[in-house]
Amino acid sequence: MKCISYLTFVLCSNIFVASGRKFLIQDAHISVSHMIKAAGYPAEKHHTITTDGYILELHRIPGGRRNENLNSSTKAKEAVLVVHGIFGCSTNFLIMGPDRSLGYMLADAGYDVWLGNLRGNLHTAHLNLTRNDPKFWEYSFHEHGKYDVPALIDKVLAVTGLPRILYIGHSMGTTSLFTTLALRPEYNDKVLAFVALAPAVYLDHMKSMAQVFIKTFRISDFLRSQGIMSATLKPELQDRLVANMCSVKHPKDNICTLLLQVIAGEDLEQTDEDVTMQLMARVQPASWRQLEHFGKIALTSKFTSWEGGILGPVKPYNMSNIKVPVSLLYGENDQVAEKSQVMRLARELNTSGIVEDVRPGCSWPKFNHVDFLFAKDLGTLLNRPLLKHIRKLFNKYGLKMSIA
C-alpha cells in the first residue's frame, strides 16, 4: 500500500520492512481534523490569507473530550494560539496523544485551542505561486513575523470575537512572535500573554556551525544552484529513508534518534521509540532562507533582520516594542535554544518589557529541544505544570469570560 503523501505520516496504515523486521505505522496520511476527531475531540479547519498571498491553515479544537457536541460559536471561551517551530506544523502538538500533547490537554482544560501553521509547511499554499516557483521560498521567520503570525492572530480574534488571545510558541514559533511584536507593536494589544517554549532568539553557541555551513561552504547557495529551492524531500524518498533508517526500536541503534540527539541534546531516557519514525516522517519543508537567517543571528550575535542577506548590514529588531508578558521556558540540555542564550534574552526583555517567568521547562536535567514536543513523559514533566501557569496568566491578565 502506497501512502498518499508525507503530510501526516504518523496517521498512515502501512508496513515497512527494515533490517529484516516489520514495523506497522497506524492510520497515516489522513487529515489533521480526522486525527483530532479520532482522538475523541471536536475539530474544525480554518484558513487565512496573508497580505502577501500565502494561504495558512489553522486547526481548531473548540472543546475537550467531554464536550464533543460543543457549539463553539455560542461559547465565550479563552482562546490559545499554538505555533510550531522550523520543520514543524500543527500536528507537533498532537502526535503524542490526548494525555501528553499540549493541544489536547489545553482543550480538556477548557480552552478554545487553535493550532497555527506558518508558510512553507504542507498545510500552507499561495494564491499565485506553486511550490516549484523559487519565489515561493523567498521568506524566513521575518515574513512569518511580519505577515503570518498577524494573520493567524486576526483570524482567531475574528472567529471567536475575543479582544485578545494567549500565544504559545515553540522554537521558531517564538522567534516569529518576537518579530511580530518588534515590527508591529500594535499586536501587543491583541496578545494577553506569551509562553515561549525553547525560545530561539540568540544563538551565539551555533556561530561555528553557521560559519562552516552557511558562510564558508555556502551549502544552501550550492543547493540552489542545483535547482533545489528548499529543504524538502520528495514524499517517496522521505518515506523510503525513514523506513530504512528510523525503524530500529532501540534508540542507541536508531540513526534518526541519534541524529535528533546530536542536534537537540542527548536524552535517550525520554525518547519514545514508537514515535521516532513517525515524527521524522512528518518533518516539514522549510526555506533555505530560514536557516540562513538563523545563521546570520548566530554569526552577528544580534537578533537582526535579514536585510541585505547573510553579509548584509546588521539591523537588530526593536525589542523595546515588546510589552506583552513573556514566560521563557528552556530545557537544561537544549542544544538549540541554549540556556545562557535564553537568559540573555530575559535580561534584554527585562529592560523594557515584562518577563513574567524564566525557568526550566521541567526538573528533568536532560530535557532537550524536541522534548518540549515529544518527550516520553511530556504530560507530567511539562504540560500539566504548564496548564497551571497558563491558568495564572489568564487570571492575571485576561478578561473574565462568562461561559453561558
TrEMBL record:
Keyword set includes DNA damage: no
A Pfam family this chain is assigned to: Abhydro_lipase
Domain Partial AB-hydrolase lipase: 32-96
One GO molecular-function entry: hydrolase activity, acting on ester bonds
GO biological process: lipid catabolic process
Gene3D superfamilies named among the record's database cross-references: alpha/beta hydrolase
Keywords: Glycoprotein, Hydrolase, Lipid degradation, Lipid metabolism, Signal
Annotated catalytic residues: S171 (nucleophile), D334 (charge relay system), H369 (charge relay system)
InterPro entries xref list: AB_hydrolase_fold (IPR029058), AB_hydrolase_lipase (IPR006693), Lipase_euk (IPR025483)
Keyword Hydrolase assigned: yes
PANTHER family: LYSOSOMAL ACID LIPASE-RELATED
Family label: Belongs to the AB hydrolase superfamily. Lipase family.
Protein name per UniProt: Lipase
